[in-house]
Amino acid sequence: MSLPPLTLREPSQRVSPKATTYWRVQAAFGAIAAWAIAIGLVVTVLLVPSGWWSPLLWLAAVVLVVVPLPALTVAPRIRYDVHRWEVTDIAVHVRYGWISRTDEIVPLSRVQTVDSAQGPLMRVFGLRTVKVQTASRYGIVSIACLDDAVAQQVVSRLVAITAATPEDAT
Amino acid sequence: MTDGWQRLDPRTLATQPFAIAAKSLVPALAGFVGVGSAIGFGLALPLTVAGVVAVGAIPWLTTTYRITGTHLEVRRGLLNRTTVTARLDRVRSVDLEADVFHRVLRVTKVAVGTGVDESRLDLDSLDVDEAERLRVALLHGSPDAVSAGASDAVAPAPGSPAQEIAGLDWSWLRFAPLNIGNLAIALAAIGAVASQFDAFIDSERVESVWDWLQASDLPLVVGITLVAGLVLWVPAACVGYAVRWFGLRVTREQGKEGPTLRRVHGLFTQRATTVEEAKVRGVVVRRSALVGLAGGADLRVLTTGLADNEPHVLPSSPRAVVESVAADVLGDAEALVAPATPHGRRARRRALFHHLRQALYAVLAAVVLTWALGTWGVDRPLWLPPTVAVAAVPVALVAAELRYRRLGHALTEHYLVSCTGTLTATRTALEADGIVGWRLRQSFWDRRLGLAQLTAATAAGGEQVLVADVPLGEAVAVAAAATPRMVEGFLPTEDWA
């Protein structure tokens, strides 16, 4: 009994265009920390007498320098292209990821809570994340990096739809 | 109490100290010894006992509960008074548990679940008859029986009498020694106890044992150890199985909101768990390695509102019994026997790579060990890495084939079925109506192979059922077929034509 293969279509909405800059700035903080550690490692290697650990420390330093680079350059652009979301009267669908790819669908009739969150850096950019939770800890959908106004609209729309479905959501 | 508020049973005062003593034996002993050596043991003993009794009295003094027309309310807490409330029509499960102390005093712990995990109500403890009355009132809906007062007669369950679904058969004991997983737990426990006596193990003793081993016939010693281990393990496993599952009965009763499932078992600690059958969202049939070879399996149900949301309904027992009970619980025999769709050659390749990678790790470990032994001045066993390689590769090939053959999924009218396992074969059936979301994930390697990991989110059991390494198109098709309403809006229109 093999079903004919199907594909999910791309959700219709993009996240805020400001998200790419936000992701870059966020990555910059991580990169600064990683590079600081890398500099520390290099200084250590140069100061202490070399031993069998020296090549390992060099390797670690190189890894720390290289790893943040994609997140600063190409990753935000790819993420922006991939990240999509859509809310219908029946369900929420989000797609995200830049190396791995994830699709999440949650039916609104099973939604238990709808909330939105905004970290300090997100506030600077006027972005907001909407989070939809069900009775399962694996049935959680986050629509990341929406424009503040859009996020408020989505929350009130989701609350209106879920309030209209009286099931106990399990 | 006014307004129908009732206390826990006074016998709680006797059971609580034992529970506390059992739970905090080590700190209690440490405190006893510490205080005792300071002020003398004659004084410390009554002080310790008084302390334990006083702490044990707190729950009885501070916990009260009542049933109103619509709610069950429990108030508790010494400094932070909290009131937990559960709507009666949301009560989905009642769990009664009584260990030996409780049973001697004829009291039992009561845990009430509402299907939402955060709002479980625990009452430790109530009189056995009172607890039964509460259970009947909560699940069979005659709240007058409790709120009117404790002295009323036991309310009879409405509707038909309990219908027996399964009961323990002593011939099932033959599966008990085959649960090797339990052997590992037992060995870990023995190891933990033995490590308490490491003061007695010094290098002199180790050396004398080593010398004795060198002098004796090694294969003989290993053989005798194995036989002795077997002789000890078989009765221990049987006794453990018997103690845990003594008097197992699974029955169906008529509750106020539909049928309920009730499971009673236990020789010393007796447990009676009742769940609304509508909240049973699926089953897990597991054939662990040796039990499976001997034609056995065990059965769990996926449910909500219990402390353990994946409780055993049947311990290791014949597969035919497991399947008939599971079919009875699900109301769908198809979900247990429907042939699983395999995931194709790319999934087989994935399984092969997975196990060959593990074989590689084993060989690498052998190389490192050989090198390390050399640096410690022992003769390098150069034969070790090739031997490990020769042994590990065929094992990996067999394991990969087994893993691939056991991987699959199926859809029946109401259930999504996922089959997994290498040594242990697991078949999980989840009610499509219990699916509260989908996650379709592809890692970088998944994308290269065109495979996906499909997760069905649910409130029941482990809260997810995974269909692993399934071709992407097939994964979407499964999700769309299991929950058409949820997924159909996100399919391209030409695909859905």
Describe, in plain words, how this protein is organized in 3D.
- The complex is a heterodimer of chains A (170) and B (497).
- By secondary structure, chain A is α+β, with helices and mostly antiparallel strands.
- Chain A has two domains: 58 residues; 81 residues, Pleckstrin-homology domain (PH domain)/Phosphotyrosine-binding domain (PTB) (PH-domain like, Roll).
- In chain A, strands 1-2-3-4 form a four-stranded antiparallel β-sheet. A three-stranded antiparallel β-sheet of chain A has the order 5-6-7.
- In chain A, α1 runs antiparallel to α2 and α1 packs antiparallel against α4.
- The mean pLDDT of chain A is 88.
- With 497 residues, chain B is of the alpha+beta class.
- Chain B has four domains: 164 residues, no CATH class; 76 residues; 146 residues, no CATH class; 62 residues.
- In chain B, a hairpin with a 5-residue loop joins β3 and β4.
- About 3% of the residues of chain B have low confidence.
- At the A-B interface, β4 of A face β18, α15, β19, α16 and α17 of B.
- Chain A: This is YdbS-like PH domain-containing protein.
